[in-house]
Specification:
By secondary structure, the chain is α+β, with helices and mostly antiparallel strands. It is built from eleven helices and nine strands. Strand 7 and strand 8 form a beta hairpin. The radius of gyration is 28 Å and the shape is globular.
């Protein structure tokens, strides 16, 4: 924003020298308030400030095609720079999970904390000390059980797992939901087809998960104890991997 202020200062001097306008600019030009404003608000304020400046430089300045072109190019260039981050975010193809959009430009933790359906999982990841790992470069494929999935466990299971003395078991269960690499639904389907009906995936925990075709466009995951989870939302892309939402907690031996 300081660069914008310096630009307008130079613009006033240039206008005076080029067009012989020596009257002082009497209206103070404040581009932004002390608080942070959005790119769109900043663009509107700079455009307004430039229009005021053009009026204050006099009729001769207004009539100058050269000055008008210069000012127009300046506004367009500033707008493009200011709004680029906003446009980039709007251009992302997001998937809604737990009432929140999941942005492919954000990592697994940055997205997961906004899902209302995964508050238990996020609490477990924090208790297990795995936040930094899942914010790392990866890539990781995460099978993410919902709050309802955790609620299907025997009463008191989650509360006990979150206790500090049970951290080792909690880490074991959570890392059983993570597979190294970025395995999209298409990649999983291909692995199942290549495996003639099923595919075994080695988890970070060390044991295998068995992936099977559960119907057109559907996948089922069987854990080491024989329990089956269905993928309810697939291909939630992340900057460091992919999440597949599941309806059952997977348990290692």
């Amino acid at each position: 924003m300081l660069k914008g202020a310096r630009f307008l200062s130079h613009l006033r001097v240039w206008g005076k020298r080029r067009f012989g306008v020596h009257a002082a600019v009497t209206t103070p030009l404040k581009l932004v308030p002390d608080a942070i404003v959005s790119p769109c608000d900043a663009l509107d304020r700079v455009s307004s400030a430039l229009r005021r400046l053009i009026l204050q430089l006099g009729a001769e300045t207004i009539m100058s095609k050269r000055f008008a072109l210069f000012a127009t190019v300046a506004v367009v260039a500033f707008g493009a720079l200011a709004s680029a981050p906003l446009h980039a975010q709007m251009a992302e193809r997001t998937v809604n999970v737990g009432g929140a959009p999941m942005y492919p430009s954000k990592n697994i933790i940055q997205n997961a904390v906004h899902s209302k359906d995964h508050t238990t999982l996020v609490a477990a990841v924090k208790a297990a000390g795995l936040v930094d790992t899942l914010q790392g470069p990866g890539p990781f494929t995460v099978f993410a059980p919902t709050n309802a999935a955790f609620a299907k466990l025997p009463p008191g299971t989650v509360a006990n797992l979150l206790k500090p003395e049970n951290k080792t078991m909690l880490v074991k269960i959570l890392t059983y939901h993570v597979v190294p690499g970025r395995m999209t639904a298409a990649a999983l389907m291909k692995a199942v087809k290549d495996g003639e009906g099923e595919a075994k995936l080695k988890t970070v925990e060390g044991e295998d998960l068995v992936i099977k075709d559960a119907g057109p466009g559907k996948l089922a995951i069987t854990d080491a104890k024989g329990d089956v989870a269905q993928v309810t939302i697939a291909n939630v892309l992340q900057s460091n991997g992919v999440i597949h939402v599941i309806d059952t907690v997977l348990l290692p031996m």
